[in-house]
Design a protein that fits this description.
With 222 residues, the protein is α+β, with helices and mostly antiparallel strands. The chain is 49% helix and 16% strand.
């Protein structure tokens, strides 16, 4: 079951909206590059968009891939890195001021910005206190384009270190499809079993992708 998916009255509306969104992304990308390289902003933005296909994927791409397309411009690359840091802090701010729930739009917006366009899979854990307030947000596993591994023992060790009483599991699918795999479900079961031995609650496991976000709890896997 997807928490987030496109909606609209018909396919013609979606097609038109896609055209508008594409134009807006191209324009935003050009303006971002124009902050440090106005003379080549249009040329470089078109080159990046042709390679990555969207503003989100361009910003989330690895620095080396961007720099190559930017003809080695460190100044423009620094602009991308600063923009990403600013967006991260802006979206993370509300998470520090309220209890964390997997269905909260603030949580979903933050996680989508962090992970939806990442070219490789990462396993992230949000560690929470008894009031479901965020203690720490940590990447516990870095994988490949199609798989990631996380170790229940290491996750529970961090729970003890941080005195966390609950966790929210998150990982991304670079393929764009947020449907959990059999391996995803097996790993979640192992983490839940290990967590229960320490009375740590696993609130949910979210799979984040470009086309949507799937909640294990809403899908009936938890």
């Amino acid at each position: 079951m997807e928490l987030v998916r496109p909606t609209g009255p018909d396919h013609r509306h979606l097609a038109a909206q896609g055209t508008i969104d594409t134009f807006g992304c191209r324009r935003a990308l050009e303006e971002l590059i124009g902050l440090t390289c106005p003379d080549r902003a249009q040329e470089l933005s078109e080159r990046l968009f042709a390679r990555f296909g969207s503003l989100g994927e361009t910003v989330s791409a690895r620095s080396a891939a961007r720099i190559e397309l930017l003809d080695g411009s460190i100044e423009v690359e620094q602009t991308f890195l600063s923009f990403r840091r600013a967006m991260t802090q802006m979206l993370k701010g509300p998470l520090m001021q309220r209890p964390i729930f997997s269905s909260d739009e603030f949580v979903l917006d933050y996680l989508r910005a962090q992970m939806a366009y990442d070219p490789i899979e990462r396993f992230r854990v949000l560690f929470l206190n008894a009031g479901n307030e965020l203690i720490a947000d940590e990447v516990m596993g870095v994988g490949t384009v199609s798989a990631v591994q996380a170790w229940p023992r290491e996750i529970l060790k961090r729970c003890l270190d941080l005195e966390a009483t609950a966790i929210l599991l998150v990982h991304n699918h670079p393929s764009g499809c947020s449907k959990p795999s059999r391996a995803d479900r097996d790993l979640t079961e192992r983490i839940v079993k290990a967590a229960s031995s320490l009375s740590v609650i696993v609130h949910d496991h979210l799979v984040v992708a470009r086309k949507g976000t799937t909640s294990f709890r809403m899908a009936g896997y938890l």
